[in-house]
Every structure is written in structure tokens, then in C-alpha cells.
Amino acid sequence: MTVTWEDLGWERVATGVGRCRLPVWDCTIGLVVGEGAVLLIDAGSSLAEGARLGAQARALTGRRVTHLALTHPHFDHVLGAAALPGTEVFGAVGVDAVLSRARDREELREDAVRQGLAASAAREAVERLAPPGHLVSGEWTLDLGGGRQVLLANVGPGHTAHDLAVLVPGDPEVVFCGDLVEESGEPQAGPDAVPARWPAALDRLLALGGEDALYVPGHGAVVDAAFVRAQRDALAARFGVSS
Question: pTM (2 decimals)?
């Protein structure tokens, strides 16, 4: 029997493009399917979650995840990465240092536990976490086969110092925004945010996708360009950034 996106709790956003909202922290995971490769966007909050995502991707596509794009270095987006062995992992330039330094890894573990992840699960995931092997400084085109190309764009800083967006061309075009955009609540600005640069990062997202794209936030429902623009203006007002 053929497994559909809906069977596994995924939302089909466009042909060969889907996303799911994980429980507890409502983190969005993206999946883009080509003829020769499968791209997962973010990896969840634990090794168990990453393994489930990999199994679901295989059930949907018949293939393992071959590429993984990490939108930013927060625990609910990266700690499942080690459960996807053999993947080519991409992140914004600088995220490798964040995921390698002992003090940053300890802060990642502590944040996960503080937010409710079991201490043992957080410790194991951080111990096994490796920095991305491919670092994006501007834009990087991935060829997933069958004419499907995906653009990885270093659009930050904003939510963090290392924000990566993923553009999937098509009709409609789809932009995975990471936590630069949030729909289910006010965007969260932690100690690693760069508030003065955040509105400009959303301007880059809008330039990347255009008026007719679908924008997939890091948390919440899929939105349109008008929502992203309104959130950009709200962030500029919130942080006192002139237009």
C-alpha cells in the first residue's frame, strides 16, 4: 500500500515538497524529494526524533535522507542530526564553530534540558552531534535529480548569527524560513539573536521567494509574503530598527 504524506502526519506543500510540525516545541521539518536525492530541512530535538524523521522520509520516498540543511543551531532543530548517518549536512558559515566549541555545546545541552528534553537524551544527542560538512556563505545550489534544484541561502544574521533559508523553485515556490519567521507566536529573540539585522534578513527572504511564494516558518502554519512583511515591520518596531 502506498503511504501518503497525510498518512504520516505530513502536510504536502507542493509537488514533492512537504513539512511536518513536531510535537512539544512545534518545530517545523521540511522534506524535498528529487529523483536522485532526498533533502530534510532540520532534524528535530533528539536522536529518537531524528530517527523517526528518517524512517518517515524513507517510507514516503523509498530512499534514505541524503542531504540535511540546518536552518540554525538551536536544539529543537539540530539534535536529531546524528540519527541520520551518511547524510551531507549543510549550515550557514559559522554554525560549525557553534556546534564544535565546548561551551556552546554545553549551552545547547542545558537549553534542551531547560526546555523539557530528558537530560540523558540531550546529553547523548550533543555528544554525537557533528558540525555540518558544507558551509554556505552566500548561496549554494543542490541538484536533487530529475530537474529539481534547491537553493540554500545564508540570509542571516537575525534569529541567530547563522540563519539558513531554503528555496524550492516551482509553482508555487516554497521558502523554508527557519525561526526567522514564526506564525504560532511572537518570534523568539534569545541571547544569540542579532535584532538589529533581523528585519533585513526578512527583506532577503522576501526577495528570495517573491510575492507569490509560500513561506514555511520554523513554528506554525504556512504563511504568505504579506505575513512575512508584517512580521518584518513588527520586528523593526520592536527592536527600534529604522526602515
Answer: 0.97
